[in-house]
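Your task:
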Amino acid sequence: MTDTFNALHDLQIMARYNRWANMRLYASVEALPDDDYRKDSGVFFGSIHATLNHLLVVDRLWTSRIVGEYSGIQSLDQILHDDFADLRHARKAMDDHIQRLVDRLAVGLDGGLEREVRYRSVLGGPKHISPARHILLTLFNHQTHHRGQVHGLLTQAGVANPPELDVIFMIRETAETSEKT
């Protein structure tokens, strides 16, 4: 593992991975015709477009809960951005926000990773309490799950080489980049 990653907490690595994987996935999605991008392909949220919006919705929900702000999210299938370029811009901003948030918590700021976060599901029901680190694990796992769905839809749409998205590829790529500089 590179020196860049040796000094990081696992959740910090996952935040960097999350951003890296999303950039790669969005670059591949960008090449799709709009009909393929919006086609209901039978995955849980229907289309690539709706799935990518769902990921942003859930990330906004979880990060807002951690920092104690109102998310404005009304439903898990809410379309935050109908335009792909706007969605991509919002995704990048969210990934940067997630990385900053994780970095702060990992060094003990803002209550640290063990800080208890109180929240209620968008669907209602009882209040829950979880440590920030469990919420972040959930966020990263959720991202991986739905990125996998989009990856499969890219293959169905005829994309010849959907991007490699495994963590180890990011670590290798980062090591190769740092060796060249």
About this structure: The CA atoms of residues 10 and 43 lie 30 Å apart. Residues 3-180 form a domain with the Four Helix Bundle (Hemerythrin (Met), subunit A) fold (CATH 1.20.120.450).
